[in-house]
Amino acid sequence: MTRPLISLAAALALAAPAIAQEEELQGAPSPNEIVAEAPAGEWAAIAPEDLVVMTLAPDAEGNPREVIIQLMPPPFSQGWVANIRTLARAGWYDDISVNRVQDNYVVQWGDPNYDNPEAEGEEKALPEGLHRMTEEDYLAERRRSETAWFAWTNGPYAPHHGNFAGWPIAWNAEAAWPVHCYGMVGVGRGYSPDTGSGAELYTVIGHAPRHLDRNIALVGRIVEGIEHLSSLPRGSGALGFYTEEEFDKRTPILTVRVASDLPEVDRPAFEYLSTAGETFARYADARANRRDPFFIHPAGGADICNIPVPVRRAE
Amino acid sequence: MTRPLISLAAALALAAPAIAQEEELQGAPSPNEIVAEAPAGEWAAIAPEDLVVMTLAPDAEGNPREVIIQLMPPPFSQGWVANIRTLARAGWYDDISVNRVQDNYVVQWGDPNYDNPEAEGEEKALPEGLHRMTEEDYLAERRRSETAWFAWTNGPYAPHHGNFAGWPIAWNAEAAWPVHCYGMVGVGRGYSPDTGSGAELYTVIGHAPRHLDRNIALVGRIVEGIEHLSSLPRGSGALGFYTEEEFDKRTPILTVRVASDLPEVDRPAFEYLSTAGETFARYADARANRRDPFFIHPAGGADICNIPVPVRRAE
Fold first, then answer.
1. Is residue A51 part of a domain?
2. Fewer CB under 10 Å: which end of chain B, C or N?
3. Chain B residues close to A224, C-beta within 8 Å
4. How many pairs of residues across A and B have Cβ atoms under 8 Å apart?
5. Touching check for A249 and chain B: CB below 8 Å?
6. Residue range A78-126, pLDDT digits in tens
7. Which of A11, A138, A210 sits opposite B238 (nearest CB)?
């Protein structure tokens, strides 16, 4: 979700530069080209306290695999977000694993013995000091005045959709909530009234499962390295859990660290395109109405998950 | 897309059967449970002429990999669909490869030297007798009377969405067209007025890229084995093409055969849940309003790509 899509026209641009350059001059800029022109002042730094670095075991060829998660800002899910920092600082996530990969749905990681039909041992004890959240906390007070909103983002799931401080949200007359787009990170839970602690996490690797909105806490999104999760082999057990015969497919998670706890030299730096700025409005419009040369029929609209907020490494 | 999602509750049902069984008795049936109860007469057989078997090279552990595609029925894309049968029967697809895997977007296969920024040789010559299609053919005549439609499936992309003969479509006052959901198969093309032949194909492996609707021909969907494509390593070149250093990641395609051309014993048989039947209406309603025990807030709606048409192996 961090890299806006590039049209097939870009492939042709590389294969046949003369023709493509000419046609690009004739067409409107692509969403990517609009973002590339954003003034520096429209990029907002992400606080190191809001970045989490998850290091997986190297792949079969020995290549390192790092997944970087951005945690959600207030007013959303702050109890779970605090728990995730607590769990990371306690080293609780170290040596857990990816236990579930369900095609067109989610990748889930945590204690292999929690909520797992293939469990074979005892659950790992949680650290002290975790918040116990309620179902009320899936929702936040509505703050429409602070929200960038485009009427054509609305769909069947809520009366309004837009972005708040760089995050995709939905709202109605009473409340606002973050939405399940590709790459969003949420908190696994058992049956109501359980709301999960933050020890068990998942990310979306398929079409937005919006039926989960307001039913599970969303706590962040993957801003780099999602391909290390989305390309993992699917589990053949119920819900995509790896079966006993597939335990060797579980990907070990070596460490999970809050970026602000890392030595400065190892600390990743990211920024997002302000969703309140002029460039984001032009980008969103271009996503909804593709006028770059490859396109014939602009759609006239786009759902909120098809307007991913641009996030990039800061220099 | 062929397996409707199972709720997390099902995992708990396996981990803690006593509690879960009790709660299932209290809750409404899940979408899956509704489909499982469909009378036999609501399942419609898919003609062997509409099934294509794509055999990939075995994986690194020697496991076979087979992808089964269902071609689209009239009135949609029939010129390209005919071309795909012609290409398969000419053996043209044999020994091509998967050349592009772009996260949250598409997997593309075809001649590695067609439209590829990493091309290193000559394009493969096409067989005789292919139809040359026009951009008009992306659309079909509107046939609302034959369409199963639920108002709450509508989103920002078109005034109406529904299902026609088991396929997700959108329409306006003038025309109808198939839509880009997860697992749909489309025809790669160059710049307009090129519309592609059917030699270069892709499937959706992320959030529905609905901006491609009416801009590219959709010709079918993957009904089995999509995980063999969606879990492939992502390409690091432009648009997810494999770069020269990654040519060894290209997955060879050994053969592509129309099922009706196979000996009867090797011929796969599939059926889909009629989208005009009572069960589909109940299933779609349950997808939009999850009332099974895991859920607290039913969404009240679902976009067309979040109501995948159930498809299964026929006995």
1. yes
2. C
3. none
4. 214
5. no
6. 999 999 999 999 999 999 999 999 999 999 999 998 866 666 788 899 9
7. A11
Selection from A132, A136, A112 nearest residue A124 by Cα: A112
Q: Do B92 and B123 contact (CB within 8 A), yes or no? A: no
B103–A230: do the CB atoms touch at under 8 Å? yes
- Answer yes or no: do B300 and A157 touch at CB < 8 A: yes
Residue A252, strand partner residues: A97
The pLDDT value given to residue A25: 43
Residues 207-226 of A with CB under 8 A from B: 207-211, 213-215, 226
Per the structure, the complete domain to which residue B32 belongs is given by 8-119+131-313
ipTM: 0.91
Q: Could you read off the pLDDT of B128-167 as tens digits, one per residue?
A: 999 999 999 999 987 665 677 888 889 999 999 999 999 9
Q: What is the pLDDT of residues B154-212, one digit of tens each?
A: 999 999 999 999 999 999 988 999 999 999 999 999 999 999 999 999 999 999 999 99
In a domain, A250, yes or no: yes
Mark yes or no for CB contact B11/A233 under 8 Å.
no
Show residues of chain A in contact with B232, CB under 8 Å.
231
Per-residue pLDDT reduced to its tens digit, B253-286: 999 999 999 999 999 999 999 999 999 999 999 9
Task: Report the distance separating Cα A67 and Cα A1, nearest Å.
Answer: 13
Quote the CA–CA distance of A232 and A248 in Å, as a whole number: 12
Per-residue confidence (pLDDT) for residue B46, from 0 to 100: 98
Taking the Cβ of residue A25 and every Cβ of chain B, the question of whether any pair is shorter than 8 Å is answered with no
CB contact under 8 A, A206 and B210: no
Q: What is the CATH number of the domain that holds B301?
A: 2.40.100.10
Q: What's the pTM value of the predicted model, to 2 decimals?
A: 0.92
Please say if the pLDDT value at position B24 is more than 60.
no
Chain A environment of B213 (Cβ under 8 Å) = 297, 299
Separation of alpha carbons B197 and B184, rounded Å:
17
List of chain A residues whose C-beta atoms are within 8 Å of the C-beta of residue B23: 191
Q: Which of B47, B195, B219 is nearest to B134 (CA)?
A: B195
How many structural domains compose chain B?
Answer: 1
φ and ψ of A110, to 5 deg: 160, -155
Domain assignment present for B3: no
CA B10 to chain A, closest CA, distance in angstroms equals 8
CA atoms lying within 13 Å on the CB side of residue B78: 5
Cβ–Cβ gap A183/B214 under 8 Å: no
Let me know if residue B63 belongs to a domain. yes
Nearest to A191 among B138, B188, B293 (CB): B293
**Is A11's CB within 8 Å of B234's CB?**
no
Whether residue B200 contacts residue B211, with contact meaning beta carbons closer than 8 Å, is answered with no
Distance from CA of B206 to the nearest CA of A (A): 5
Structural element, H or E, at residue B218: strand B218-224
Measured CA to CA, the distance from residue B123 to residue A28 in angstroms comes to 30
